[in-house]
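UDP-glucose 4-epimerase structure dump, as promised
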Amino acid sequence: MDRILVTGGTGYIGSHTVVELQQAGYPVVIIDDLSNSNREVIDGIERITGIRPDFVEGDCTDMQTLSKLFADYPDIKGIINFAASKAVGESMHKPILYYRNNLNTLLNLLDLMGPNGVKGIVFSSSCTVYGEPDENPVTEKAPIKKATSPYGNTKQISEEIITDVINAGAPFKSVILRYFNPVGAHPSAEIGELPNGVPQNLIPYLTQTAIGIRQELSVFGNDYDTPDGSCIRDYINVVDLAKAHVIAVKRMLENKSDAKIEIFNLGTGNGVSVLELINVFEEATGVKVPHKIVGRRAGDIEKVWANPTYANEVLGWKATSTLADTMRSAWAWQLKLRERGVM
Ligand code: WQD
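structure tokens r here:
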């Protein structure tokens, strides 16, 4: 089987994708600079699959490091690129770090793919590129809106870079996957979302509040134009999301499409509000989440959820987990972290 390079493979979505790749029979090599993850994730992956993925600690913005990686692994035929800084708020304060890390990583990979016979790259993009959509649910044809953060802008620019490089005749393909809101953890509770410091994303903050690490969850606004006033998102189970990556890489390596570039929205198609999500968590786990309504968070989109029909029909992929099961998986992971004394 062709080997798959997973950049950022010890991260949240990367680690879940490595598990699915291994279980689909693909040999994997991970490169990660461990700036927002740790080596223990490799142990967790091995406990799930029984296969320890090859791991290279390294910075993908360093061309020497990446060149050596391809020399050491000449059987790399596909890449899934997760390696990126991804906190919207942080990107507002550290734009140079975000542009340098996210764009130089991609440029280095694209530069090395041709000479090393790599057939394709799956790119981790985001529904952020749609900004505040004119209508929901959002299809891949929805207009790209001006990014409201350097993070979101790096996703838009990266998509444009990939398009320009491939249209210039590069000898490889790309599948661009636009995620909605990835949530939950592997059902084994061996891997999950492990943010450094105070979580920015909703679910880690919610489960840390439920377990008592955080005192109270702040709900950022209930005066939006939505049924209960809180923001609406499309929360997609991270394992469902990971499975889509395996389908995408297989599609590329087996040349199942004539298109050199394909773009897919990966969501459930269901819009859920913050307050609804808190209720789903409480009912699914029996655990209360102390919360209060506070002011809006700058930059928040009011409502965005996917029309996943294109991915359903073309990839033959569909998100199947229930939100209740997904919330239970997030809670089981939080309990495991306490059991391990991690937090
Ligand atoms: C979800 C909802 C908040 C925290 C971002 C990026 C996206 C992707 C996922 C990387 C919003 C509300 C949150 C809290 C809250 N990033 N919220 N209290 O902003 O939709 O998406 O993260 O891949 O690209 O844009 O995710 O989890 O931060 O927020 O009320 O303590 O929860 O207002 O409505 P977001 P989020």
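The longest helix spans residues 95-113.
lmk if u need the other ones
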